[in-house]
User: What shape does this take?
Amino acid sequence: MKLIKDFLDRIKPNFQEGGSLNKLHSTFDALETFLFVPGHTAPSKGAHIRDGIDLKRTMFTVVIAMLPVFIWGMFNVGYQHFLSMGEKTVFFSLQNLIFGAQVALPMVIVSYSVGLGVEFAFAQFRKHPVNEGFLVTGLLIPLSLPPHVPLWMVGLATIFAVVIGKEVFGGTGMNLLNPALTARVFLFFAFPTYMTGDTIWIANQADGYSGATSLTNIANAKSMPVDGNWASIFRWDAMDMFFGFEPGSLGETSVFMCLIGALILFATGIGSWKIIVATFLGGLLGGLILNIMANFGIGDAIVYMHMPAYYHLLIGGFAFGAVYMATDPVSAAQTERGKWIYGIGIGIVCIIIRVFNGAYPEGMMLAILMMNVTAPIIDYYQVQGNIKRRLARA
Amino acid sequence: MGKVIKIKKGLDILIKGEASGFISSAPLANTFAIKPSDFNGLLPKLEVAVGDEVKAGDPLFHDKSNPSIKFTAPVSGEIVAINRGEKRVIQEIVILADKKNSFKNFGTTPLNALSEEAVKEKMLLSGAWVHLKQRPFNIIADPNVKPKAIFISGFNTAPLSADINLQLANKSDIFQIGIDILNKLANGNVFIGLPADKPLIDTLKNCKNTTNSFFDGPHPSGLVGVQIHFTRPINKGDYVFTIAPQDVLIIGKLFKEGIYDTKKLVALVGSSFKTNAYIETYVGTSIGDIIKTNLNEGKNRIISGNILCGTQIKEDNYLGFYDDTLTIIPEGDEAEFLGWLLPTYPRPSASRAFVWLSRLFQKGKESGFEVNANMHGEERAYVVTNEYEKVMPMDILPNYLIKAIMANDIDKMEQLGIYEVVEEDLALCEFVCTSKIDVQSILRKGLNYALKEA
Assistant: This one.
């Protein structure tokens, strides 16, 4: 340890003002503070002791919470690939993992290296420290993309996320939209053929195999299921969809793994349980309302509207979005009551887009982005409430 | 017992080095000083020169914008130095104590015969007035305003704070006189906040002519600001005075015996002291003599006041005017290898992420943590939400208030309740902040700005 520290201290002058490598100082700072939490002490007035938590640890905790879906995702990518080839493999097999890793790891490496490159460049240019937030964004981007997406698109989307999603707003903490979703939505509208359809959800799927997801299947359903057997429409039963044995974006398929991630976020207090719970409640509520409407004959012809509400939470990226995307504290509502409204809003809007907008089978992405935009307004009214209470007291 | 106000939000931080009930018999320090920087917004105008002899209660300087506010000598002796800093700003007026401690006599009058004006005049002249603080702004009470109420917190909840029961023991009569005097200033609106779950000393239990409210819950339930918020909240245009219990004794003594006697018990806390105890001394004591033989080796941080909101001072400096605690902890300015991943030693945290990554966190739970002044991270933009709110019992949105101050938006600051808070009320927010924002100094900037605009 001392050796590394001494080495860093020795080369440090090169990176400081006037040093030959001054242009790389934020890179050096980032590396140095990654290895060593600096010995900064509290200012001479104020709180002389500070909490052990910092943003690095906070972000790292989120990364840990994402590992369950990431690992499941790798197995599933392999599993779905071999399934399309006609090989029914054991899900947790080395073969699946190796194939999945070959697909997923390059995506992660591209996203991290491109993203951190842009981050470091901005940090240098704007003379601010490199922010840890990208540790999370850099993993969320590949997790939210279909496994068959070309790597150059991962890189392009990452640049877009960091520059347009974050830096143009003034950097970490200032962005209006979730940067990872900004990346996804960019690809979704810029390269729709790579982001929708039946051939992108399985990496290198065999020709002629239908790679449609449960989401596509239900959206295209023309007639009600026989004997209420919804699995015949989805092609998977509720359990399969809960655990995530279906094709889909890298990290989205397993609701179970998302819930483990949510548990980690709850247990550590890092993610807002209110947002997660509210989003799930909103989804259920939205589904139930449509069920009731359909039962009263409104939109009776739409099969989707008859689908039991809880299926909404199992199909597509609902759980993934609720746990990992909606909870981004910067783009979410920041007041406590606001978080309930924000979460329920995401759930309901997601269901509405899914059911009524045939062009966008997955409503979650747009629902979260829409509520990201709405969040400041929600907070505004919460803050006004606080101000009014104070005025009423006088 | 009256109504108990239950405080749910907050945080008790257990720290090693609390002062035991033991009162050390250490001799009195040689020098004492009054530091104008202890008073927010003060411009001092000297009334003495080096070489002058003063009695306790003789004026040293006054407030330029309000000459009736006098700052007087806490002990008798010779003015040995008037230290100035940059731009010749007066830093401290130093008195070499003659150890006889002769007091200037301000005379005694039967309490019943005293008018509000007479009370004010005597307090201003003797220097006792300065012990009254005013909200909004956390400044010396303005003698020209009528306070809505005067508030006293009868207990401390902050980590490593002094025990008020000990400070007030066997002082019932003087304390009562002090309270009666305060009643004259506030038309009978004197409020005391008391603990719901701790034994009360007779001085507080038997105290008359006050409105008592009882508080239960973690820190900051013992902060006077929180107690005001839940009983007589400060609205725009309101003035509330606050005073520490020990300072009520100073007022009591002034009206009982006619002298400005600032004797008080000061707690020596923090793990860098060899012995944590109380000492009896006067306002503005030099600390060099106190810590000389009682300090552990190593690089230490000396804090005049509480660990959560005090001021760092050097070892040849003086205890702050309002402070009744001297805190010394290790500086802790060492870098930590991968410290963001695994801590190398236990440290307090409000975050559960810590428990999860480190069992070490639990270690300090029973006996208190050995803390230091390390930031445990670097300053970042605001990212995490609902941290401040969890330790802020008042109906105030600290995040939005701080952002309003950063944006210099005076209307928003007012609307969001800046007049209700002083630095110590947001100290826990600063402690828990993941982004390591210096909340208290930002609040001070906001208060200064609002004071200038007012």
